[in-house]
Amino acid sequence: MDKIRIRGGKPLSGTVQISGAKNAALPLMAACLLTEEALVLTNLPHLADISTMANLLSQHGANISMAGEAGDNGHAGRSINLHAPRITDTTAPYELVRRMRASILVLGPLLARTGEARVSLPGGCAIGARPVDLHIKGLTQLGAEFEMAEGYIGATAPNGLKGAHIVFPMVSVGATENLLMAACLAEGETTLSNVAREPEIGDLAECLIAMGAEISGIGTDTLVVQGKKSLHSAEHAVVSDRIETGTYAMAAALTGGDIELTGARVELVEAVLDKLREAGVDVDVTDKGIRVKREGALRGVDVMTEPFPGFPTDLQAQMTALMSMADGAAMITESIFENRFMHIPELARMGANVTVHGASSLVRGVDTLVGAPVMATDLRASASLVLAGLAAKGETMISRVYHIDRGYERIEEKLAACGADIERLDE
Ligand code: UD1
């Protein structure tokens, strides 16, 4: 199992090319199941979760080929061709689903295209229970019938799906995506109210439109879909990764560095940049992206995670690492997931002073963090340990880095190019 060794304390300076977003790429890939024709996605990040999704889609009968390699300093040029002329198997097996919860995104497309799907029920995970009841209720309203057996969600729609008005009782990114994809092949009109407005959903909607779908309301909390008999081939570029953007912005801020994030899109990270400015970080929009620099002191600021356009839960752990060295205190409140504080005991091993109470953590800034052996527990928690390691005195050794590889493309190369002393050790 690989480890990452960081010798910290250096301000980072240079350029980081932001990759395509994992959380956009995964539903976009699942959308290939909606058509007999080929879907080509460009600006695809090179990540473990992308390979897991590719394996799952080939299990369902998709032919998949990748082209292009990531180049120097992260200039990802990958594209993927996904072609599912026939669905050969409608089961998403436990072996793949347990590795990646986003596997649930094949449920809507499989059901809409073939009238049946069998998807292993995703279990609990490190950041909370994460049920899929909203996906199931929504698809039931489109006419599907469900039966749970042997750890699998069995779904059938023998007469096809039919348009309906679905009001989500709470905002869910994955449920919005599953219903949006299913509605594209349902008969008649579907209205989805109280949908998530994350940019990855807008990206999916634009790709579906390129495939022949009729969708209005993109970027709002209501999507209206006119169902089609079939969709067709399309080519689509994956939107840039706002979580990767925020993570490297915080790396620059925490180390007192100066990094230009090329390919980053400011409108996707407004809430994050506002908080960084409030914390004393300089943020400028450039021709190529966003430049983040810190010369003065870092100030403690309070943050609450919220659905987009609020501060993303996927940057909560990294923000905690940043605040751990701020002047003063910061209250960080997690409103999306219960139990998303796994990074805190690990940060504490490096000298961070953080107290968790209910859904909030109180971070009292310290002058120095000190390197230590720490363990990655989930994807974003691991990123917070990398940030802390970059700022800490001495050596930090992070184990279980496979969590990082699920969502950050060549993180050690991108950071090393900005002067970080970081190395991947193959055990
Ligand atoms: C997606 C992102 C993930 C991000 C999250 C919130 C992908 C692949 N993953 O996850 O990185 O942290 O959005 O921005 O895009 N819920 C229910 N019932 C459901 C579905 C969700 O109660 O059927 C709850 C969840 O437990 C959670 C909240 O709704 O408390 C939001 O979850 P959701 O938006 O669905 O997250 P994901 O789509 O799983």
Could you explain how this protein is built, in words?
The longest helix is centred in the middle third of the chain and has 13 residues, at 242-254. Mean pLDDT is 94; it is low at 71-76. The chain is an alpha/beta fold and 427 residues long. α8 (242-254) runs parallel beside α12 (379-391). It is built from 14 helices and 24 strands. It has helices at residues 22-30, 48-59, 94-97, 107-114, 133-141, 173-184, 199-210, 242-254, 270-278, 316-323, 343-349, 379-391, 402-405, 411-416; strands at 3-7, 13-17, 38-42, 63-67, 79-83, 91-92, 116-120, 145-149, 152-156, 165-167, 189-193, 214-216, 222-226, 234-237, 258-262, 282-285, 289-293, 303-304, 329-333, 353-357, 360-364, 373-375, 395-399, 421-425. A 4-stranded mixed β-sheet has the order 22-23-1-24. A 4-stranded mixed β-sheet has the order 2-15-17-16, with helices on one face. A hairpin with a 5-residue loop joins β12 (214-216) and β13. 30% of the residues lie in helices and 25% in strands. The protein starts with a strand and ends with a strand. The structure holds uridine-diphosphate-N-acetylglucosamine. Uridine-diphosphate-N-acetylglucosamine (UD1) binds at residues 23, 26, 101-102, 128, 130-135, 170, 172-175, 196, 200, 313-314, 336-337.
Short structural description:
The protein is an alpha/beta fold and 427 residues long.
